[in-house]
Design brief:
There is one protein chain. By secondary structure, the chain is mainly alpha-helical. Helices cover 68% and strands 6% of the residues. The protein has one domain. The longest helix has 27 residues. The radius of gyration is 22 Å and the shape is globular. The chain starts with a helix and ends with a helix.
């Protein structure tokens, strides 16, 4: 492919003006993630923290694969022969994109934003604690003996993970107020914090992008937008009513819009994952020139700096 054709091809993929272009873009992501998965055992440490980080990469692969499957849409034929034309439901797609946002947001909070080893330890253990504490909600008297043993074991794990946080030099150096903030997050089964100037700051899903180094114009209120469809809001109902008019294909435009946003997010994850595991750059270099240019340019466009 000559330079002129290469530039046109890269431009086409970055614009994604139609579903075919979006499908091609998803294939680029899938090929890259699958190559990373095949080489994941060769990178990073053997601790649970890094094993979990590598598993997040596999989760993103699965989510991207499901994005691609969404583009096949659905159709239906009743027993009397009446047919529903093939459609894509972009409101369901929005829920998956929101999940991708939260997964990549979690990755940033736990693995990207923390700089010191103590910060990384505190954030990772907060994240683990949040999951274990939520699981304790399922503990009931009617559980099997095996399940009760697992619950008891997890209670001991919870104590251990909390001690790993409170035993760090960073935690001990914090003011009582900031130590209390961390203990509050443990109680709330949450982990979304970041450190700045030896102080603890809370995060919500809506403002988590401020630590992700993503341009404001890309992320402004997008989490709220996708949440409209994760919950049965009235807005999601009346928008759904207008998506599938016979003379128009609003659902296609909304599908492309949702996918484009996911592409920006995914490109930043690829870059952040490479920074966590620099050895992955060798896998990135095995891609075609076209694919490398597309992934690189998407990340550059997405970043605030």
């Amino acid at each position: 492919m000559n330079k002129g054709n290469l530039e046109k091809e890269v431009f086409r993929l970055m614009r994604c003006d139609n579903l075919g272009d979006c499908r091609d873009m998803l294939n680029i992501f899938l090929e890259y993630f699958f190559r990373v998965i095949r080489n994941n055992d060769k990178v990073g440490g053997s601790t649970s923290m890094y094993k979990d980080a590598r598993m997040v990469n596999q989760m993103i692969f699965s989510k991207v694969a499901h994005l691609k499957e969404f583009l096949n849409g659905i159709e239906y034929q009743a027993t009397d022969g009446m047919r529903l034309n093939r459609i894509i439901d972009p409101t369901l797609l929005a829920i998956l994109v929101r999940n991708i946002f939260e997964t990549i947001g979690m990755f940033n909070v736990v693995y990207v934003k923390p700089k010191s080893n103590d910060e990384k330890s505190i954030l990772y253990n907060l994240w683990v604690l949040a999951g274990l504490n939520y699981r304790q909600r399922f503990a009931t008297e009617s559980m099997t003996e095996d399940a009760k043993r697992k619950v008891a074991h997890e209670i001991e794990q919870i104590k251990t993970f909390k001690e790993r946080i409170t035993d760090t030099k960073l935690y001990k150096s914090l003011s009582l107020k900031d130590q209390g903030k961390i203990l509050t997050k443990i109680k709330e089964k949450d982990y979304k914090i970041y450190f700045e100037n030896n102080e603890v700051h809370f995060l919500t899903w809506s403002d988590i992008t401020k630590i992700m180094n993503i341009k404001d114009k890309i992320t402004d209120e997008m989490y709220t937008y996708f949440s409209l469809y994760a919950h049965p809001s009235n807005v999601s109902v009346f928008q759904f009513a207008n998506l599938f008019k016979a003379s128009e294909e609003h659902f296609v435009n909304m599908t492309i819009f949702n996918l484009k946003y996911s592409f920006f997010l995914i490109s930043t994850f690829i870059d952040d994952y490479r920074n966590l595991f620099p050895e992955i750059m060798q896998t990135f270099e095995t891609l075609s020139i076209r694919d490398k240019m597309v992934l690189h340019n998407l990340n550059v466009i997405s970043r605030a700096t």
